[in-house]
Amino acid sequence: MHTDLAREGLNDAAWGKSGVYPLALDWDRPPRGRVFRRSVEVPERRTRLLIEWEGREPAWVEPTLNSLGESLALPVNWDSYGARSVDPKSVASAGETLCLVMESDTIPPTVVPTVHGGVQFEWHTRGIDLEIEISPLGAPYVSYRNRQDDTVWEGDLNTNLDRLREVMLRLSHRH
């Protein structure tokens, strides 16, 4: 990952307090070379989400980053039932989670804010229902159902990382 590039211009004291939440997407696949950067600013929250990756930009990055930015812009009580605003650290963790599991040609997720200040990624396509919830308080949680063969599993991301990567291959455009 390119954390040094993301930290450019930030000292240790400013890191984490600056409102810049870097996500480094490092694709160990050709073509390699130039590092690209994309960011979205949320002025209301004094936050900027920065994504970096090496090689060609995956098609899911722009729509996902825009949706994450929209989630960050939500105020407290956005659902009129007392929901918390989305925690920028949850969004940064969500981006790191995508780095672990997404393929360059995976279908972009639907980004859904949660009432506890987290975000959830959802895919409901190709007979698959997949949800990844990133809470500000805990580890990412995965829920999966394949309606074609009635396979169901759920649990924390670390325990299910290999399974999740296989699902992402099925959600890629090459399948």
Widest sheet: strand order? Answer: 4-5-6-7-8
Mean pLDDT over all positions: 79
Q: Using only CA atoms, what is the Rg?
A: 16 Å
Unreliably modeled segments: 1-17, 25-32
Distinct helical segment count: 4
Structural class: alpha+beta
Strand residue percentage:
25-35%
Give a count of the beta strands, DSSP E runs of length 2 or more.
8
Kindly give the count of domains: 1
Overall helicity: 10-25%
What composes the largest sheet? 5 strands, antiparallel
Q: Tell me, briefly, the overall form.
A: globular
Order of helices and strands: HEEEHHEEEEEH
Span of the ends, CA to CA? 28 Å
Can you describe this structure?
Helix content is 23%, strand content 30%. It is built from 4 helices and 8 strands. The protein has one domain. It has 175 residues and is of the alpha+beta class. The N terminus is likely disordered. The protein starts with a helix and ends in a 5-residue tail after the last helix. A hairpin with a 2-residue loop joins strand 5 and strand 6. The strands form 2 sheets. Strands 4-5-6-7-8 form a 5-stranded antiparallel β-sheet.
Feature tags:
175 residues, alpha+beta, three-stranded mixed β-sheet, 4 helices, 23% helix, globular, disordered N terminus
Task: Itemize the secondary structure elements and their pairings.
Layout: H1 3-6, E1 20-25, E2 35-42, E3 47-54, H2 61-72, H3 88-101, E4 110-113, E5 119-125, E6 128-134, E7 141-146, E8 151-156, H4 161-170
